[in-house]
Amino acid sequence: MPNYFYTAKSFDGQTKTGTIFAKDVQQLASSLKNENMLLVKAVSEEDRKKHAFSFSLPSFGISATEKIMMTRNLWVMFGAGLSLVKIFSILSAQAKKQKTKDMMLDINVRLNKGEGFSDSLTKYPKVFNDFFLSMVKIGEESGTLESVFEILSTHMDRDHELKSKIRGALIYPCIILIVMGGIGAVVSTFVLPKFSAFLLGMNIPLPIYTRILIWLGAFSQHYWYVIMLMPFLLGYLFFLAMKTHSGRWARDTFLIKFPLLSPFIKKANSAIIIRSLSSLNASGISLVRSLEITSATVGNIYFKNALNQSIEKVKKGDKLSSALRSHQNIFPFGAIDMMEVGEETGKTSVVLKKLSEFYEQEVLEETKNFSVVIEPILLVFLGLVVAFFAISVIEPMYSSLKSI
After folding, report:
1. Domain ranges in the chain?
2. If residue 58 lies in a helix (H) or strand (E), which one and from where to where?
3. Which alpha helices (H) appear in 187-260, and where do they start and end?
4. What's the pTM value of the predicted model, to 2 decimals?
5. Which CATH superfamily is domain 3-48+62-160 in?
6. Does domain 162-404 have CATH number 1.20.120.1460?
7. Angle CA(151)–CA(278)–CA(76) in degrees, nearest 5?
8. What's the CA gap between 377 and 338, in Å, rounded?
9. CA–CA gap between residue 97 and residue 59 (Å, rounded)
10. Sheet holding 37-44, edge to edge
11. 303-313 pLDDT, tens per residue?
12. 146-160 burial, b for 16+ CB within 10 Å, e for fewer?
């Protein structure tokens, strides 16, 4: 059993911290409740070590980690028998960011006025998306908020872990490319001009690639500020392009067609989509509404189109597997067939959950191997760049010596 570092409050307002072994957070909350203590925060020893040396960039909104912790606390506190008003009063007191505290207090005020829970959350669409709101609304109407909070907590935790692993796998190649670009800028600005003066002084015909290198050195020396600003300009242009339909289409087409990335992209998107459908289905939300919510949250334009087209087919009476069959080329092999098995056996929710766990594990395994695969490719690319520089400089020198 994991060892948890916890913060709890007694019913008379006293705060207590410590460590305790428990099977999970729910068991920890129950044991503290028996001691007339209310669990406020719990972090396992493993998670604490994992984040001991981690850092994050400044956030101007409410981070994914904060949302996960809030949902987890909602599940634990609601299960402990606290009212939503009391829960948000505690959450606002423990919030560190002023923006988060203000939001919690506002929700608390709305609940005190008798406003519905889901209606209170709709005032913050940037924090609570359609997926979250639909789940809460169903739980509110059916009286199953505790189980909804549990499903949401698990879903958000797995979704965040999957996306974090993917981002982590991309950090290494990005750092290598940034370092290569920095070295290239230094060489172009300070080293190439000296070589170009030497090569031009030899008064021999220069190959085209050597002339390109000389031009690049001269340009870098005279317009060094353009080289410095180029990465920021390209980043801004890319950001603007991603705001357009054609830009997103070009990006997603490359990702889904490129052989090295295609299986990874298909499994990652499928895992997110299938887990969303599984969670929504388990909460009793209709299939059509589940597809609409999932379509609104998915980023890849190919998967979004597949879901949107399947909505119309499902409305006409088709099963989910039949509706997605025409798009089976973007889903991993066997995914749609497994959905069909779930529909035929009446265990769609169970099958979707198993499928999402399987593809999530596949993606996590592939992210571990991503750096191993990308490293030799980057080394080959670096070797080609070095070879270009070497040939451009050495060949004219060799030709001059040969003529002598």
Report:
1. 3-48+62-160, 162-404
2. none
3. 192-200, 208-222, 224-241, 245-257
4. 0.63
5. Type II secretion system (T2SS), domain F (1.20.81.30)
6. no
7. 0
8. 35
9. 10
10. 15-21, 3-10, 37-44
11. 988 889 999 89
12. bbbbbbbbbbbbbbe
